[in-house]
Amino acid sequence: MKRISSVIASMVLFFSCLQAQERIVKIDFESGSFYNNPKIPFDNSFVIMGETGKEIEFVKANISYEGKNYILHSFVWNRIEQNKSETFSIVVPPVLRSNTKYDFEIITYRLITPPQKENLLKDIEDRVRFFLMNNIYFDGKNVVVNKPKDVYNKLNQIIRESFEHFESKNFIPIQAPSSLVLEELKKQSDFRFDRFFKRTTRIERDDIANEFISDKVEHLVALISSELIPFINSQLVQHHRQVVVKSVETDKEPFTLPVNIGMYAWDKRVSINNTSVHNINFTPGVGLTIPFNNKSRLSSKTRIFDSFGFSAGVLLKPVVDDNGIEYLAPGVNLPTYTGLGFRVFKVVRFNAGVLVLGEKGNQGFDNLSIIPTAGLALELDLWMGIKK
Fold first, then answer.
1. H or E element in which residue 253 lies
2. Helix 202-232 and helix 179-190: axis angle, to 10°?
């Protein structure tokens, strides 16, 4: 008996281990593809593995919808000092959609040396200095900053582009240009130089203005440089190699139609003594939803709203106004609704749409009325229970 129990326990443990194992997808940097062109899971995590040299310190995997130019998810591998291997592994959690194609961008990075950091900072300072010298000028009366907010935004763009191919192993963010830089630019635009230019010749005014502009630019360059130092002094790595694997498909899941069961609000106005009166009530309803194949950033990033779709169904009782008149859809003998909506917290669907109504006893389609409705319903999978 003990032996049988041991065998059963071993089998349970074995199958549990099998289920716990993550699928491995290997990247081939030479061909720019995943080995054997595998499908990848959507409902379980998987591992992207690849071979690298010992000099590779950081690897990033960016995931996008097929053919889209924005990144949905990014995951990294960050070598620790004790790790001397020549392979990397990035764990991707179950964040993908079933039966969908994705593009994978795999980027490797190498550590840069202190002299390279110095040259990098100098190059950025030169770019910032050149830009500022072309946007701070003397107009004959005052030294003017050309639209401080626009200058600030452009500085931000220059810095982001300059560091586009760099990452911090310590995950220290770039904090330049800060609001202090914007305040310095605004402060300059409000300053008046009339008192400096009294009793001076035109040549002297130009010399004074040019010297002031030069000092102002150097002050701003030094301020921005000081804000960049924490990022540059971190363990900075530079883009080494990039591979883009296109059109990688996820596993398919069985096709199901979501069923919605919930309450729908409506307002059937009635005329009482020649006065229009609101008649607001709620009626239970049931319907089906056809999800959209939505690839927007909102639906991919949000943890609350997802699965946008078109819903249609019937209310389970006629709509009755304050005069006691019942309304339903001809041929169905129940009110029908259609609407658009989205799912909330994976199991609740909010719909907004219209009810199609006709007075009970009138089987024609001539006197139909359409009124707005909104519903909140529990969403169930037609065959498999509550949707995951």
1. none
2. 170
- Provide φ and ψ at 194, rounded to 5°: -55, -40
> How far are the Cα atoms of 264, 357, 362, 370 from residue 268, in angstroms, in the given order?
13, 10, 17, 10
Contact 365, 358 (CB under 8 A): yes
Q: Which pair of structure tokens corresponds to residue 250?
A: 């996820």
Amino acid present at 33? S
| Core vs surface per residue 115-146: b (16+ CB within 10 A) or e | eebeebbeebbebbbebbeebbebeeebbbbe
pLDDT in tens, 207-255: 777 788 888 889 999 999 999 999 999 999 999 999 999 999 998 877 6
Per DSSP, the residues of 282-335 read EEEEEEEEEE-----HHHHH-SSEEEEEEEEEEESS-EE-TT--EEEBTTTTB-
Pull the structure tokens for residue 213: 């502009």
User: Which amino acid belongs to residue 232?
Assistant: I
**Phi and psi based region of residue 162 (left: phi greater than 0; alpha: psi -120 to 50; beta: remaining):** alpha
